[in-house]
Design a protein that fits this description.
The complex is a heterodimer. Chain A is of the alpha/beta class. Chain A contains 22 helices and six strands. Among the domains of chain B are: 80 residues, no CATH class; 44 residues, no CATH class. Classes of the chains: A alpha/beta, B mainly alpha.
Amino acid sequence: MCGAPNAADNTVCDRCEAALMPIGGEDDAPLEPDSGRPPTTADQDAPAAPEETTESTSSLSRLFPGAKPGRGMPALPDEMHGQSRTMTGETDQPAESSPSPSEGSAESGASDDFTPGWLQEAMGKTDFSDSAETSAELPDWLQETNAPTSDASSPEPRAPFGGDSAPELPSWLRGDEEGGTESPQPPDQEQEELTLEPAALPSWLKSLQPEVVAFSDEIDLARKEAEASSGLLAGIPGPLPVEPIVAMPHIVAPIRQAEISEDVRAGQLLRKLQSRRAAAEAEVKQEAFRFPWQVIGYLVLLVALLVPLLLNTKLFNVERSPEPSKAFFKAVETMPQGSAVLMVFDYEADLMGEMEPEAKAILRHLSERNLRVVSISTVPQGPYLAQQAWNQVAKDDAQTQYGQQFINLGFLVGREIGLRSLVQGKFGLDRPDFTNGRLLHTYAAMKDLRNIHDVGAIIIVGSTPETIRIWLEQVGTKSQQVPILVAVPASVEPAVLPYYHAKQVKGIVVGLVGAADYELQTGHAPSSGAAIDSLSVGALAALFLMAVGALAAIGSNRRKRK
Amino acid sequence: MEAITTILGDVLRAEGFSVWIGAILTLMVYSYLLGDNPLSRLAKHLLVGTAVAYGAVIAYHQVLYPSLLRPLQKDPSANWYLVIALVLGLLLLTKSTPSFSFLGNVSIGFMLGVGAGLAMGGAMVGTLLPQVQATTLSLYPTDYGPGLTGTVGAFSALVIVVGTVATLLSFQFTRRHETAAAARTVNRFLDGARKLGRFFLLLAFGALLGNGILTALTLLIGRLQFLFGTWLSITGGR
């Protein structure tokens, strides 16, 4: 460690008493205590410190007696000792007779006695330091290490990482240099730097330049060419090519993707749509498979409704009148003759089959009672349906005339707003009626009728709960002395009954059965007798279908559970 | 030309022609039972078109002309306030143009404001308060009559009161924290009332469904009477 030269057979330094390690036996030598770590590749590549250089030089001088040991000569890496000797041997000796580097390294580590004969002979003939030819054959790194050797007289220590780092030395370290002069750059080296030009490859060499291949191709190529050179897998091709892949330069190459033309994409889309269409058609066919059951249901219901109509049966009689219907009849019966009734036709053509029998039964009773009927409607179709119902009633009674017992005011716009204006305002006798377009005050039916409070009752023939509610809320609260009677379809009855129990409605006629009942109360035979039978049989058929459907659903659920 | 018009008018006014048109349209609508088809769609389009056209004619002849245009034409100075209604109505037409539709907001706001005010007031006075008052019933049988009549009346009143309260409680979706025994008792009572209320709701829905079926059957019977009676003269018809 002190750098002092020692004899070749010394095991301990004469100066510092440090343990000496024979050259070539570094593998067995213990680690230096100050380093504390095994030497790395960087340590081996980096030029050695001056004292190490001296020690290495002394070792090299034992190998090459003819060589001049220099101060700046760097220590050779361990493997380079063998390689240098191998190269030396190749210079003059045939390759077959040269020992392996490992053998040479192992043998030369102990002393000169172990130097093989071929090497001793070669060393006796060759002077490495002075031979220019041999120097030319050395690799660059070795020539570089030899350069300080030729300039061994220079007192300056070489910078560990090249000459450029010398000016960066601290001042205390450059103190001995301040008095000296800078060593001028050799003229030859300066000339070389001036004449350096960028390398230009000739055309024939460029033609031999391999083409850039994709990264994946290089990996495949490396895998093919990879062959283990050491270890148990030595000579076996195809081991994991870790090093070629890792050390592979990153070549930015576009990733090749499968080019799909628009036609191919369109074809794929068409096939996908066709497959979906086929699936949809299969679902439709599956739905159509249920179709006969629905048709059977339709047919059962149609037969149940048609048979009573075709045979004109009298299976069911309406004998029991519900209390609301009785109250309705009683309210009309108690009205004085000649008084007016405001009749509201708030239904449309879709419910005409159920509402028209009620309207006709009530109109007939009002006509028989010689009561004036003033019709009005808050739906656009109402005035026409009112006129149609009146025309059918007037056919049976030739004495009734339009304008005398009946007048059609027409359409009242605005729902709540219109009803409130009807309550607070007047009928507007200067308005035309719906049927003839004549002014209202010209009709006898409008005599002494200025507003809604002059009528004896309000009869609402409405098809929806909202219609009844609006009339009760907007008109019923403002004209409490005027009784309100209601005729509704069967589906609206549950929504209207609370108003009857609250005494906001004085009477209710419900549906086709209610119309037949009302006709019976007025002393007429029900005009819808066959329809009553048809309705009853149809209701029973509906109950039968619901029971069958429920049983089928129960059976289906049990089958699914099993 | 006059002859053609007369013949056409007689045909259109003839009852047989309208019956045939009605029968054909009825069959076209019922063809939907066999699946959606052009005939059923044509019948629907005809219904919508005629309804809109009829509504437009009614609106002009029953509303615009007698209530707005005629008074303005007859005596503008006395009916000057109708100009406000005319302007508000014209502003409604701007709703069809997106760039000027904001002008119609005034008319929409006017109608909504008046309509909502009337509807709220009417609902309070016409429905809510009378219904609450009608639910406040006496449970003494003597108030409903002697003997069995009074007992039945009292039981009916009890059912109405209990059903109304239980149905209202079934829409109570909150519970008290059961930190005390009293809270647990209240929660058990509320749970039972909710179940009872749902039972009453199911009864009401069943009544609505049954009455709805009756209405549908009645409408179908009316059409069958028209087809087999009025059109084909097989039955008596209506």
